[in-house]
Structure formats: C-alpha cells, structure tokens
C-alpha cells in the first residue's frame, strides 16, 4: 500500500510541475500578444 501512496505523490508532484510550466507559457504568450498588439496599433496610428 505504501507504494501506491508514493506513486500518487510522484504523480501529484509531476502534475503540479507541469501545471506551473503551462501557466508560465500561457502568461508568456499573452504578454507577447499584448506587446505585439500595442506595436501594431502604434504603427497604424503613426
């Protein structure tokens, strides 16, 4: 039974790590999109 708990803990840790990575990548892409949009708007208004 101990093995099952250890496995569950490892899966949970892995899930947390991938979740954090996913959040970072999502945030990064949103920032890039907003910067690109501002640049395009600035180019159009000039």
Instruction: Report low-confidence residues grouped into runs of 5 or more.
Output: none
Mean pLDDT over the full residue set: 90
Largest sheet: none
Q: Structural class of the helix and strand makeup?
A: mainly alpha
What spatial form do the alpha-carbon principal axes imply?
A: rod-shaped
Explain how this protein is built.
With 46 residues, the protein is mostly helical. It contains one helix and no strands.
Summarize the structure.
This protein has one helix at residues 2-45. The chain has 46 residues and is mainly α.
Task: Spell out the blueprint of helices and strands.
Elements: H1 2-45
Features:
46 residues, mainly alpha
């Amino acid at each position: 039974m101990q093995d099952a708990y250890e496995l569950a803990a490892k899966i949970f840790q892995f899930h947390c790590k991938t979740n954090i990575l996913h959040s970072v990548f999502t945030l990064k892409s949103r920032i890039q999109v907003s910067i690109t949009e501002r640049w395009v708007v600035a180019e159009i208004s000039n």
